[in-house]
Amino acid sequence: MKFVKKPVVIEAFQWLGSPEQVEDPEWAIEKINSGEFLIATIRNNREQIIDCSMYIKTLEGTMTASIGDWIIKGVNGEVYPCKPEIFEKTYQISSSETAQEMFENLGYTLDAKAEDCMSYSNKNNQLFFYEFNKTYSFRRLEDDMSEWVGASLHQAITQQIKELGWLDNA
Description:
Helices cover 22% and strands 34% of the residues.
Protein backbone atom coordinates (compact mmCIF):
# COMPACT_ATOMS: atom_id res chain seq x y z
CA MET A 1 0.00 0.00 0.00
CA LYS A 2 1.11 3.57 -0.62
CA PHE A 3 0.35 6.55 1.61
CA VAL A 4 0.48 10.32 1.24
CA LYS A 5 1.59 12.41 4.19
CA LYS A 6 -1.18 14.62 5.55
CA PRO A 7 -0.54 18.33 5.01
CA VAL A 8 0.43 19.78 8.38
CA VAL A 9 2.19 23.02 9.21
CA ILE A 10 5.42 22.69 11.18
CA GLU A 11 7.99 25.19 12.38
CA ALA A 12 11.61 24.70 11.38
CA PHE A 13 14.93 26.46 10.96
CA GLN A 14 18.17 25.46 9.29
CA TRP A 15 21.00 25.15 11.77
CA LEU A 16 24.21 26.77 10.51
CA GLY A 17 26.48 25.53 13.27
CA SER A 18 27.11 28.74 15.13
CA PRO A 19 26.26 29.06 18.82
CA GLU A 20 25.35 32.70 18.04
CA GLN A 21 23.16 31.83 15.02
CA VAL A 22 21.03 34.87 14.28
CA GLU A 23 17.83 33.17 13.22
CA ASP A 24 17.09 30.75 16.04
CA PRO A 25 13.36 30.91 16.78
CA GLU A 26 12.29 31.56 20.37
CA TRP A 27 11.34 27.91 20.94
CA ALA A 28 14.86 26.82 19.97
CA ILE A 29 16.46 29.37 22.30
CA GLU A 30 14.24 28.05 25.11
CA LYS A 31 15.41 24.48 24.33
CA ILE A 32 19.07 25.60 24.38
CA ASN A 33 18.56 27.40 27.71
CA SER A 34 16.76 24.40 29.23
CA GLY A 35 19.46 21.94 28.11
CA GLU A 36 17.21 20.06 25.68
CA PHE A 37 19.55 21.24 22.89
CA LEU A 38 23.29 20.97 23.53
CA ILE A 39 25.77 22.51 21.10
CA ALA A 40 29.24 20.97 21.12
CA THR A 41 32.16 22.46 19.22
CA ILE A 42 35.63 21.09 18.56
CA ARG A 43 38.35 23.68 18.13
CA ASN A 44 41.91 23.41 16.90
CA ASN A 45 44.87 24.86 18.80
CA ARG A 46 44.17 28.29 17.23
CA GLU A 47 40.63 28.24 18.69
CA GLN A 48 39.08 27.88 15.23
CA ILE A 49 35.96 25.73 15.12
CA ILE A 50 36.65 22.56 13.12
CA ASP A 51 33.45 20.66 13.94
CA CYS A 52 30.14 21.48 15.55
CA SER A 53 27.15 19.30 16.44
CA MET A 54 23.83 19.86 18.15
CA TYR A 55 22.47 17.15 20.42
CA ILE A 56 18.68 17.18 20.67
CA LYS A 57 16.63 15.36 23.29
CA THR A 58 13.74 13.77 21.39
CA LEU A 59 10.96 11.31 22.19
CA GLU A 60 13.19 8.56 20.73
CA GLY A 61 16.31 9.59 22.66
CA THR A 62 19.14 11.99 21.91
CA MET A 63 19.65 12.72 18.21
CA THR A 64 22.57 14.54 16.58
CA ALA A 65 22.15 17.43 14.15
CA SER A 66 24.97 18.40 11.82
CA ILE A 67 25.62 21.81 10.32
CA GLY A 68 23.01 22.44 7.62
CA ASP A 69 20.37 20.13 9.13
CA TRP A 70 16.86 21.43 9.67
CA ILE A 71 15.51 21.46 13.23
CA ILE A 72 11.78 20.77 13.19
CA LYS A 73 9.11 21.46 15.78
CA GLY A 74 6.26 19.10 14.98
CA VAL A 75 2.51 19.46 15.40
CA ASN A 76 2.61 18.17 18.99
CA GLY A 77 5.63 20.26 20.00
CA GLU A 78 8.10 17.43 19.46
CA VAL A 79 11.50 18.52 18.15
CA TYR A 80 13.87 16.58 15.92
CA PRO A 81 16.58 17.11 13.27
CA CYS A 82 16.09 16.42 9.57
CA LYS A 83 18.73 16.14 6.84
CA PRO A 84 18.46 18.89 4.18
CA GLU A 85 17.79 16.50 1.29
CA ILE A 86 14.86 14.89 3.18
CA PHE A 87 13.54 18.29 4.29
CA GLU A 88 13.54 19.58 0.69
CA LYS A 89 11.61 16.52 -0.53
CA THR A 90 9.09 16.66 2.32
CA TYR A 91 8.41 20.33 3.12
CA GLN A 92 7.77 23.65 1.43
CA ILE A 93 7.32 27.05 2.99
CA SER A 94 3.81 27.73 4.23
CA SER A 95 2.25 30.44 2.11
CA SER A 96 -0.12 31.32 4.94
CA GLU A 97 2.53 33.29 6.85
CA THR A 98 3.16 36.95 6.16
CA ALA A 99 6.74 38.20 6.02
CA GLN A 100 6.26 39.94 9.36
CA GLU A 101 5.10 36.66 10.95
CA MET A 102 8.08 34.87 9.45
CA PHE A 103 10.49 37.49 10.81
CA GLU A 104 8.81 37.38 14.23
CA ASN A 105 9.17 33.58 14.28
CA LEU A 106 12.89 34.12 13.67
CA GLY A 107 13.13 36.52 16.62
CA TYR A 108 12.96 39.80 14.68
CA THR A 109 10.68 42.75 15.40
CA LEU A 110 9.41 45.36 12.96
CA ASP A 111 11.25 48.55 13.97
CA ALA A 112 10.01 51.07 11.45
CA LYS A 113 7.73 51.19 8.47
CA ALA A 114 7.61 54.30 6.32
CA GLU A 115 6.62 54.97 2.74
CA ASP A 116 10.12 54.34 1.39
CA CYS A 117 11.85 52.17 4.03
CA MET A 118 11.13 49.50 6.63
CA SER A 119 13.39 47.65 9.05
CA TYR A 120 13.42 44.56 11.24
CA SER A 121 15.92 43.79 13.98
CA ASN A 122 16.83 41.31 16.67
CA LYS A 123 19.46 41.63 19.39
CA ASN A 124 22.31 41.06 16.90
CA ASN A 125 21.20 42.22 13.46
CA GLN A 126 19.19 44.74 11.50
CA LEU A 127 17.57 44.32 8.10
CA PHE A 128 16.43 47.25 5.94
CA PHE A 129 14.14 47.23 2.89
CA TYR A 130 14.42 50.33 0.68
CA GLU A 131 11.40 50.95 -1.54
CA PHE A 132 12.99 53.69 -3.68
CA ASN A 133 15.53 51.34 -5.27
CA LYS A 134 14.01 47.97 -4.32
CA THR A 135 17.02 46.76 -2.35
CA TYR A 136 17.66 45.46 1.13
CA SER A 137 20.66 45.44 3.43
CA PHE A 138 21.56 43.18 6.33
CA ARG A 139 24.10 44.11 9.00
CA ARG A 140 25.40 42.96 12.36
CA LEU A 141 24.81 45.58 15.01
CA GLU A 142 27.98 44.93 17.02
CA ASP A 143 30.46 45.72 14.26
CA ASP A 144 28.39 46.91 11.27
CA MET A 145 29.61 43.95 9.18
CA SER A 146 27.61 41.72 6.87
CA GLU A 147 26.36 38.39 8.24
CA TRP A 148 25.60 34.91 6.89
CA VAL A 149 21.99 34.50 5.81
CA GLY A 150 20.46 31.06 6.37
CA ALA A 151 17.61 29.56 4.39
CA SER A 152 14.87 30.48 6.90
CA LEU A 153 15.91 34.13 6.94
CA HIS A 154 16.24 34.10 3.16
CA GLN A 155 12.66 32.76 2.89
CA ALA A 156 11.38 35.56 5.12
CA ILE A 157 13.29 38.13 3.03
CA THR A 158 11.85 36.65 -0.18
CA GLN A 159 8.33 36.74 1.27
CA GLN A 160 8.81 40.40 2.23
CA ILE A 161 10.01 41.22 -1.29
CA LYS A 162 6.93 39.47 -2.73
CA GLU A 163 4.61 41.38 -0.39
CA LEU A 164 6.24 44.68 -1.38
CA GLY A 165 5.50 43.83 -5.01
CA TRP A 166 9.11 44.09 -6.09
CA LEU A 167 9.02 40.83 -8.05
CA ASP A 168 5.93 41.91 -10.01
CA ASN A 169 7.87 44.77 -11.63
CA ALA A 170 11.16 42.93 -12.20
